[in-house]
Prior knowledge:
By secondary structure, the chain is mostly helical. The chain has one helix at residues 3-56. The chain has one domain.
Amino acid sequence: MSDITIHNFQYFLKELENNLRKMDSLREQESMELERIHVLHNVMSKMCQNWSQQLEHR
């Protein structure tokens, strides 16, 4: 391999590593957001159930 080819491949590997790190970070952020959405969904579901029960008992 020529020096240029080796250099290009090294650059490619570094960029790939950086992109994989960024993807992992984004995946973690998305996972946390999904957990928040799940919790919010559960809270809102309970609120709706409570309102429905209150209306039934009137």
